[in-house]
């Protein structure tokens, strides 16, 4: 056979591509079938089941075994085996097609949630990882720390009570602080409040929220709310969300007599020729990034104006205390100002 023949080469290429697809196509390829049939660490599976059940329980939803199997990416026979062991160990109990946490299982689940949220706090405060990476990295690390190591991590972080998304971090005794607030989608027009929680699941909705550059801790005023969209004003900008996205934002509603800085805007809204006074740095700016801005003079009361704009208008050089500091728009959006 003449392998230099273009037709033969094309046939061989098509057959090779077909074979690779047959072996590696998502979920149904032989590679994935064999991989998922391999017995995985029962401890990790147990902890994943407990955390998923705890999440559903907190949402007030009934827990069905078939739904758990769809949500967790494990072989069904492996899940059945692990869940039978969990029931024998007193972690869960079955009632027909439903399954529920027993007190011992709930206590175990809270410990896993504690590790996960502490790791997210660590990744947000101590590393340069993007916020889209916090959750998946914490998902892996939550299985690796002992109870003693978890307490050491908490101490290094100052024993925080909330993770970067506003979720409460259980204490070492399992005590959990409540989230005081209402879903944005349920608020009436002209309601004023502060974003105290951003739900990071499902991931597709969380990515939409991140794309909108919405910050936890920001003050908002609802200006429109109907079955098609929710519109709110915050830090000099208007945000328009679908109701299913707005449901993932929790707002602490302010009393009517509470004053808020409605003329506070983001530094990214400052234009050439304008000057402003810095009001502070958003809670969205954490760790080393926050310390760097403070060291550079981005402190409350400091005057600021634009000194130079790059050809593409991003970044810009801001003049603070006589020094020129270059910031990208996404960085400047985390500094709050009041225009003069």
What does this structure look like?
The protein has twelve helices and 14 strands. The chain has helices spanning 6-24, 30-37, 42-58, 65-71, 76-88, 103-126, 131-141, 147-156, 203-211, 243-246, 287-295, 329-332; strands at residues 92-95, 98-101, 182-183, 192-198, 219-225, 230-234, 237-241, 249-253, 265-266, 275-281, 303-309, 316-320, 323-327, 335-339. The strands form three sheets. It has a six-stranded antiparallel beta sheet with strand order 3-8-4-5-6-7. A six-stranded antiparallel beta sheet has the order 9-14-10-11-12-13. Strands 1-2 form a two-stranded antiparallel ribbon. The radius of gyration is 25 Å and the shape is globular.
> What are the segments in which pLDDT stays under 50 over at least 5 consecutive residues?
34-39
How many strands, what sense, and barrel or not for the largest sheet? 6 strands, antiparallel
CATH architecture of the domain at 265-339: Roll
> For the CA atoms, what is the radius of gyration?
25 Å
Q: What class would the helix/strand composition place it in?
A: alpha+beta
CATH class of the domain at 265-339: Mainly Beta
- The number of E-state strands comes to 14
| Morphology call | globular
Q: What is the H/E order?
A: HHHHHEEHHHEEHEEEHEEEHEEEHE
Strand percentage: 15-25%
Q: Would you give the CATH topology of the domain at 265-339?
A: SH3 type barrels
Helix content: 25-40%
Question: How many H/I helical runs?
Answer: 12
| First-to-last CA distance | 81 Å
Average pLDDT works out at: 88
CATH homologous superfamily label of the domain at 265-339: Ferrous iron transport protein A (FeoA)
Main sheet strand line-up? 3-8-4-5-6-7
């Amino acid at each position: 056979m003449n392998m230099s023949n273009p037709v033969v080469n094309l046939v061989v290429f098509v057959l090779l591509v077909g074979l690779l697809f047959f072996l590696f196509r998502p979920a149904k390829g032989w590679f994935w079938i064999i991989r998922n049939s391999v017995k995985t660490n029962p401890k990790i599976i147990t902890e994943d089941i407990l955390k998923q059940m705890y999440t559903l329980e907190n949402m007030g939803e009934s827990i069905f075994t078939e739904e758990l199997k769809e949500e967790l990416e494990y072989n069904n026979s492996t899940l059945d085996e692990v869940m039978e062991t969990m029931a024998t160990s007193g972690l869960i109990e079955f009632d027909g097609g439903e399954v529920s946490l027993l007190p011992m299982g709930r206590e175990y689940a809270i410990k896993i949630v504690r590790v996960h949220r502490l790791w997210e706090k660590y990744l947000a405060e101590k590393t340069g990882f993007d916020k889209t990476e916090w959750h998946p990295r914490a998902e892996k690390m939550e299985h690796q720390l002992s109870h003693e190591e978890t307490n050491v991590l908490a101490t290094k972080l100052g024993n925080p009570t909330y993770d970067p998304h506003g979720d409460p971090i259980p204490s070492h005794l399992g005590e959990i602080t409540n989230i005081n607030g209402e879903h944005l989608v349920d608020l009436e027009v002209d309601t004023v409040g502060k974003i105290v929680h951003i739900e990071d699941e499902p991931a597709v909705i969380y990515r939409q929220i991140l794309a909108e550059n919405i910050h936890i801790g920001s003050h908002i005023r609802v200006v429109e709310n109907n079955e098609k969209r929710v519109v709110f004003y915050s830090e000099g900008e208007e945000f328009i969300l679908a109701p299913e996205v707005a449901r993932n934002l929790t707002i602490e509603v302010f009393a009517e007599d509470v004053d808020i800085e409605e003329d506070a805007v983001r530094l990214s809204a400052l234009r050439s020729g304008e000057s402003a006074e810095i009001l502070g740095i958003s809670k969205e700016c954490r760790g080393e990034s926050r310390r760097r801005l403070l060291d550079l003079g981005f402190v409350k009361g400091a005057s600021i104006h634009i000194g130079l704009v790059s050809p593409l208008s991003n970044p810009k050089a801001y003049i603070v205390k006589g020094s020129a500091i270059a910031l990208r728009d996404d960085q400047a959006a985390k500094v709050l100002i009041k225009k003069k």
